[in-house]
Amino acid sequence: MATKHEQIIQHILALEVGNKISVRQIAKSLHVSDGTAYRAIKEAENQGIVSTIERVGTIRIERKKKENIERLTFAEVINIIDGQVLGGREGLHKTLNKFVIGAMELDAMMRYTEADSLLIVGNRIKAHELALNEGAAVLITGGFDTQDYIKRLADEKQLPIISTSYDSFTVATMINRAIYDQLIKKEIVFVGDIFTPYDESFYLDTKDTIADWYDLNSQSTHTRFPVVDDKARVIGVVTSKDIIGKEKDVIIDKVMSKNPLVVQAKTSLASVAHMMVWEGIEVVPVVSRTDQLLGVISRQDVLKALQQIQRQPQVGETIDDVVSASLLPLEEGVSYQTQVSPQMTNQLGTLSNGVFTALITEASSRLLSYHKKGDLVVENLTVYFIKPVQIDSKLTIKPTLLEAGRMYAKIDVEVYNEERIVGKGLIMAQLIYR
Q1: Which CATH number among 1.20.1440.230, 3.90.550.10, 3.40.1390.20, 3.90.640.10 corresponds to the domain 64-187?
Q2: How far, CA to CA in Å, does 231 sit from each of 10, 142, 199, 210?
């Protein structure tokens, strides 16, 4: 029988695209607590089947296909540009094919405006009306409102009309950056892209015996299999070491190793490859957020994927620009924080060595500025990159001034992800005073 969490997810999937969802409504309909409803809705958001928009609420959206990941929904656009919905809420789940900046005469503007596009324009009521009639959504810049009849038309056409306080150029830049980020993420290989699904995987349940392990071993040539309970949750793993010297009729539950290493579909290929090499294992279970078995990923899966990966092009801002803009002080002169964006990753979707070096150098430079020790010129840099860091991870960088003279400084830097150390650096630098 499905858990309450799973029942809620199924209920949300059964709703029509565009339907509004609330914690209270879900809790009342399915007779669950508000907490359970809230957690399930957040899981649905992670799965890409709902989207939460400030001042609008949570709506059911169509799950994107992988090949269309670079397309943004209008709901995502609102979050990107901190917009306000004036009308057409029923169309927030739709995706835009392109956007047009309406800085031209109406006739010329309409030649470029087509169905499923987004017209970015100021306080031009006629342009709002013409765009909606063409099947395009409208984004009004400068914080302007529009006429009530335009809002009614947007509701009728189920096309969003949105207002933002930003100017047209800034909005276009923000949307372009979001699309670019999506394109980079599209190139990154995740476990979910290559793993063997549940119905094709080899696994055991707690009531199976060691004889069943031998059957699976002969079929798959693997020596490591996940063990699931009656709700398909991974609760252990059995390897050849666990069964040596045991009778074949011994129950798996008696010999399995508990609390096994697992990964999720959103784990990057680099992370699971590192885990397999570091731990010396050939198969890792892939689980949902509720620990249910989704499938397995094998060393062969990883090797095939690594052979097919091509390097992604690096365009746009320099690494130093990205690092400097992203590094924010947690406690000035003590610690700094950043989030790993797509531009900061390598072809595997993890923090690149170059960016890691730039991060600890920038944090050290800020530490010296805080202590009024002058600008830093790196003379010698020793880096210990201990663990791979996935895209979207939050990092805390803690530089410590070990020694400082009039012309030189020695700085130790530690980098943490969720309170776990992922790398260290030791910088010997010359000081330059302006």
Answers
A1: 3.40.1390.20
A2: 16, 53, 15, 21
